[in-house]
Amino acid sequence: MTSSSVQPWIDLDVPASELRLDPTLTCGQAFRWKATGSSEWTCALWDHVIDLKQTQSSVQYRVLGQLPAARANVEEALRDYFQLHIKFDALCDAWAQTDPDFEQLRKTHVGVRTLRQPVVETLLVFIASSNNNIKRITMLADKLCQHYGQSIATEKGPFHTFPTLQRLNEDPDIEGTLSQLGFGYRAKYYAKTVNMLCSSHEDPEEFLLGLRTAPLDTARTELLKLSGVGPKVADCVCLMALDKSDAVPVDTHIWQVAQRRYVGRVLDPKEGPEMLKLLSQDHRDKAVALARQLKASKAPTTKTYEAAQQLFIHLFGDFAGWAQGLLFSGDL
């Protein structure tokens, strides 16, 4: 444990049109940020406890405490975490050329960004996400950190770091421990995944980080080898931690969004050509074929999940995962 060492607020100089904390940190991609004041959010990241504050004109941060070994440049890390080099407004401009509804979404859900999160945290938290809700996922993530992470004392109380894979692997009965903490059937997934990564790789986190430079299909294939990781969890990790901005996590909700928003419009004789006008002929033909496949399906299946995913990719290109995230937030 360390004692708190509060630093002054520092402005990230990012307008609300590019980043709003409340929707970004609560839309189901990050689960450890705590609302700790008026427009303030706090979390232990990179061995620091970081405080964020939304102002009328920008976002500010300060460090409330840190571990003795903390070395991160916090401002650089935050800019990377929120991917501030990617301009949200420019993406909305591009998406609106395909779907004019994005003009309204960018106003009602302004500044909802896709995060670039620590890979181990993203993997382990999303293993807990299957058949679960945000409140319970948050509770399980907190228990994992409180039991295995390091505590940092602050003026807002203690915060705990997310544990490393090596720390988890030190527990000879991780499955039993997690079962007692309320992880239920997921406990065995954690035990198997931690063991597999730590026994197969000298530095398992480095192995996972290496997937950032691998093609999407390769990264997804490697993740699917892990216990408790299905297609949706793999795509969430790819999108939110492994730089795969075209990864589109699809569940029943997003399948319904594809059905409701795009199938009829793509197939409409008048609206379809307008929506697909910026695509190459090959991509237009594939989008129409995918829409027909989805229209013929009465319920989501593995194949129709994949069809919905590919339809998003054909419509929105390299940042289809970001577009899906805004649509998901807009439908919450």
Could you state the oligomeric state of the chains shown?
single chain
Q: How would you sum up the major sheet?
A: 5 strands, antiparallel
Strand content: 5-15%
Distance between the termini: 38 Å
Shape: globular
**Derived structural class:** alpha+beta
Strands, total number = 7
Contiguous runs where pLDDT drops below 50 for at least 5 residues: none
Radius of gyration from CA coordinates:
21 Å
Strand order of the largest sheet: 1-5-4-3-2
Binned, the helix content reads 40-55%
Which series of helices and strands comes N to C?
EHEEEEHHHHHEEHHHHHHHHHHH
What's the pLDDT, averaged over the residues? 93
Give the key terms.
single chain, 332 residues, alpha+beta, five-stranded antiparallel β-sheet
Task: Describe it.
By secondary structure, the chain is of the alpha+beta class. It has 17 helices and seven strands. The strands form two sheets. Strands 1-5-4-3-2 form a five-stranded antiparallel sheet, with no helix packed on it. A hairpin with a 6-residue loop joins strand 6 (151-152) and strand 7. Helix 13 crosses helix 15. The longest helix is centred in the last third of the chain and has 16 residues, at 252-267. The mean pLDDT is 93.
Outline of this structure?
This protein is an alpha+beta fold.
